[in-house]
Known about the structure:
Layout: E1 44-47, E2 72-73, E3 108-109, E4 120-123, E5 139-141, H1 148-151, E6 156-158, E7 161-163, H2 166-172, H3 197-218, H4 236-248, H5 253-263, H6 278-285, H7 290-314, H8 324-336, H9 348-364, H10 368-381, H11 386-398, H12 402-429, H13 447-454, H14 458-461, H15 465-481, H16 485-503, H17 517-525, H18 527-538
Parallel strand pairs: 1-4
Antiparallel strand pairs: 2-3, 5-6, 6-7
Helix pairs in contact: 3-15, 3-18, 4-5, 4-6, 7-8, 7-9, 8-17, 9-10, 10-11, 10-12, 11-12, 11-16, 13-16, 15-16, 15-17, 15-18, 16-17
Amino acid sequence: MAADIYPSVNYKCPADAGADIAVEDDALSASGAAAGFAQSSHVAIVGQSRRQAEGFAAPLDQRETVPTGDVMTFQDYSAVGIDRPPEADTYGLHVVLCDKGNGEAADLLKDALRALGGNNFCPFQRRQLAGNSVADAELQLCPADFNAEQHGCTKITCRGKVYPSPKQFARGSLTASYIYAEEDMPNSLTGYARLKPWQARVVWGVIAASTAFCVGVSISPLRSDNFRSRQSGGSDVALYAAEVERIAHGEGYYQAAAAELVARGYPTRSVFNWRPPLPMWLLGKLPTPRIGQVLLGALGALLLLMGFRAAALEEQPATHLSLQPFICALLLIGAVLPTFLDKLYVVPILWSGTFLGLSISAYGLQRPYWGVGFGVAAVFLRELALPYCLLAAFLAWRAGRRREVMAWLVGLAAWLSYYGVHCYKAWSLITPDARAHAHGWLCFSGAAFVISTVQMNAFLLLLPQWVSAIYLVAALVGFAGWNTPQGTRVGLSACVFIIAFAFVGQSFNQYWGSLIAPLLCFGAAQTPAALRDLYLAAVPRWKPAATA
């Protein structure tokens, strides 16, 4: 328990406020911030998004003390300079950086002592650093109400509004940092924590209506079920296995594909019925195709490990044990289980979906160039991964990461050349009497087909389809409340595919869900925290304000 640090303006505290609340440390207030500030120095400190403060500066060896006001955070953009220097603080060594910034922490602030160390603090991006508590310029603290041991709660007055508890203050104020009593500290905060009660109740109504609609579709005659729609010549797995076997015996890919597609009764009029040659050609050139099965299984195991680690790094605060990474890993087992099953290793979209999941996980581990490499590999293996690559390139451009954008452009340019050659060779083999699909690819199947693609998780395939409908809604709820850069990336990627599947795809294309199976695991893992915060927002509960 550390001594309280008085805010610089509008404070109404005597010399000793008796501050025994579970706010371990406090920080000086600052009037404004600039995006970057420096004195003549060769030392630069860059705060990365939601990562542990490892070796931030020499005074932080014990992660406990920093000279007065060196680092501060607040919920404003770095847009303005200092209006006036803050007041000096007697206990200025008590500043603690959280291991991870919360979802509302924003840019660095500076104060009158910014030139003390001669360091340059440059924000990496929004939401990078957070102090345990930052005083608001208009925050008023009442000494009698600030003694947690005596009263058990804290009444906070901010900008003319009284908040009966720290939790209500954190939800209702967008201009102050989060201040909690230790026993009320949640494991994490989602975007739902900021909703007003009536807004949270509206969201609950939308969730209930969406769940009822999806479940109704899944049990109605409108449902889409690929297990009852088989090709007359056999499954796609048998087709790809036959092509791999022909290539292993010396045939070229396009000759093998033309022979097998026609012999098995597949439509060949559209170039989209001809799969890109890379996965089958590689498997056919291996000493034995079973090596491909081992390789795909290893990639699936890598996805499981990387996904767990990425989910763990998203959690906050670090001192609390969260079940979300374990939930994510459990769901990912169902998503990657097909990579270990017999003969499924010949399916190109399973390879593509695995690499897409690896790309998402790499971004969660702050390895963007790994993400680019895995993403480009996914689109080379199956063109359906193209929407994800375009979205990732757009996010990199929007964030100003030029090198990452260039990496995406180079990879996509190489893929365009590769796919152009593939289309040219496929068109040369299409005969005038080639069959075509009766309904085409644009089917507007809507929720029925989307729910069937969601079922492409080994666990969900064993359960009734209405369970997949609930799983879809749960994942979307988790995405909507996941307010971090990684959450935005995963949520947008999943939604792009979901919207596309609502318009494009026939019932036998259910296996396209292998692309989004890993993505939905990340969203569903966030659902428990999202529902908790949504409940607390809809049914606010706090202790009555204490009086002197």
